Amino acid sequence: MAGGIGSRFWPLSKDDHPKQFIDVLGTGKSFIRATFERFIHDVPVENFLVVTNVKYKQLVLEHLPELREDQVLCEPMRRNTAPCIAYANYRIRARRGQASIVVTPADHLVTNEAEFMRVMRTGFDFLETPQGEDALLTIGIKPSRPETGYGYIQTDSNEEVGIPTEVKRVASFKEKPDLQTAKRYVEDGHYLWNSGIFLWTLQGILKAYQSHLPELTRLFDEGKEIFGTSQEWQFIHRQFPRCENISIDYGVMERAKLRYCIPADFGWSDIGTWGSLYEHVPHDANGNALRGNVTRVQTSRSIVNVEDGVQAIVQGLDGYLVAFRDKSLLVCRMEDEQRIKEWVDAQGKK
Amino acid sequence: MAGGIGSRFWPLSKDDHPKQFIDVLGTGKSFIRATFERFIHDVPVENFLVVTNVKYKQLVLEHLPELREDQVLCEPMRRNTAPCIAYANYRIRARRGQASIVVTPADHLVTNEAEFMRVMRTGFDFLETPQGEDALLTIGIKPSRPETGYGYIQTDSNEEVGIPTEVKRVASFKEKPDLQTAKRYVEDGHYLWNSGIFLWTLQGILKAYQSHLPELTRLFDEGKEIFGTSQEWQFIHRQFPRCENISIDYGVMERAKLRYCIPADFGWSDIGTWGSLYEHVPHDANGNALRGNVTRVQTSRSIVNVEDGVQAIVQGLDGYLVAFRDKSLLVCRMEDEQRIKEWVDAQGKK
């Protein structure tokens, strides 16, 4: 899933260049590239599908030149994750009778890739057991702090006969909590961060859509014969606007019965904010995270991120964010970063 | 005189684009353009000469397209103001028997242009009197504060018979003083800031060079017949490196007898620092001086100066300087601006 926009990383991310396409960590790889490479040793390249907005199709192909053009599924507009995943399901069904599927956002960070793939394999193994074949499996992240920016998954403590001990039943999904609630979740031990990564079989997810999103299923069923043909884009272009704007969490997971979760710990972050980025990159002796040609003087606990070709001198900053990309400059206090979107919007109105 | 370099306004000014060519005030005019336009109503366009480094010749012609190419006198290297002015003197002599000359830096600010030209006319009128014909006349600025960044001119209190009351004898030139001395100067009332603007006749300045810089005079005399011809650049290219590296102040003014000064008050600054720029530009309600497409939030007493085409958002700054030009970014505390040169040099060594 690579259709997101988001101006929280402005000016690095913009509507024409959103977060999944930026190398915010300075690793030399964009998020989408890192996501692709995370799977490439275990998944044949022809089995990848990327769902994105039509305006990002070329960007996807630039970042993932291994893909054929028809592996990039284009949404004509934003309709949240349930229609996005439905589109991929129908394309997969058109090509193969059955499949094990992992659905993942393309703009998250994973630092322990070996552990990540071990968890993936544990999940796929479970999908191949009798109990797993219709299961909707999510990955829950063991919380390291009472984060209020994530949704939580409450797992059941009871072990279930016939399923691996690593796989837990989901008791409920919880929205982003306030700090007190988040603290309670972390102490309780049964609550996990909702990573937005899902594993299921084609058969399992199609059944779940049929049960919980019958109208969406009907809209896609109309084009059953069209997926994988040259008329697919035309069909999607007509049908997509009619789809309900709903997330897979609300539309399917919260309503489903056979939902499971693997608690995992592979250095995950959705890097939704500059602050979470700061937590995940190396710092110099003064606690600065620098990217690009940056000379810093008397500067501490700051992020300075400038595009290649730009030389920067920063002095006298503590706890600031300085970013330059594509003729846009941001200088602000890191603690006020949640207001970036508001400033960018105000700027647009000038 | 438009040969200066200077990195104190980095990144707006750089070696390839020094201060005289920048519109640091956001008026729409570079300093050299403003200097030219200050005189254009009183001086025929063919009478202007610009002395600059050979590498800035094209820049001068871009900023002053009214000039013919041969009105830009090129120095092959920096040799301070005495050789620079000598060059202009010899060119003028090759073209005309006599002349009244005003010599001015091309990178200073004057806010009251009418008063400036009134002072110029007072000076030229004096040069046409018997006492004025060999006089070396400088413009002294009535000090508004005990500035330690300028040299001072001490004037004589005695009025002299036969010269206008506005014109004073110079008692002595003073180097940049310490704060205590500067305060004494301001209280005394006879001390003026040395503006570096001079008026004299061709005859007067040539006599002064002969008396006080005989070796420099000999070097230029060798090419007497060559100035104004196609061999001039070749001659200058050979002779300039042999010239003493000396200012007009040390070389001529401090040694001369017939030196005069007009105390003036026309809103002058050499804008040698970001701080002095800040004093001379309009501020918003929070005391910010902004140039370019700048959105400011919770920002006060700061300069934000970005080139056209760049959009900037700054937040949470008090007393800072933010400048972006030509792929270079500076963010620093305004009070530390005297260290900019040091940082730029350190950056070059990285």
Please name the defining characteristics of this protein:
alpha/beta; globular; homodimer; about 30% helix; five-stranded mixed β-barrel; about 350 residues; about 25% strand
Would you kindly provide a written description of the structure presented here, covering whatever features stand out?
The structure is a homodimer of 350-residue chains. By secondary structure, chain A is α/β, with parallel strands linked by helices. Chain A is 30% helix and 23% strand. In chain A, the strands form 5 sheets. In chain A, strands 5-8-6-7-9 form a 5-stranded mixed β-barrel. Chain A has a 4-stranded mixed β-sheet with strand order 11-13-15-16, with no helix packed on it. Chain A has a two-stranded parallel ribbon with strand order 1-2. In chain A, a hairpin with a 2-residue loop joins strand 15 and strand 16. In chain A, helix 3 crosses helix 7. The longest helix of chain A has 15 residues. The radius of gyration of chain A is 21 Å and the shape is globular. The mean pLDDT of chain A is 93. Strand 16 of chain A pairs parallel with strand 14 of chain B, so a sheet runs across the interface.
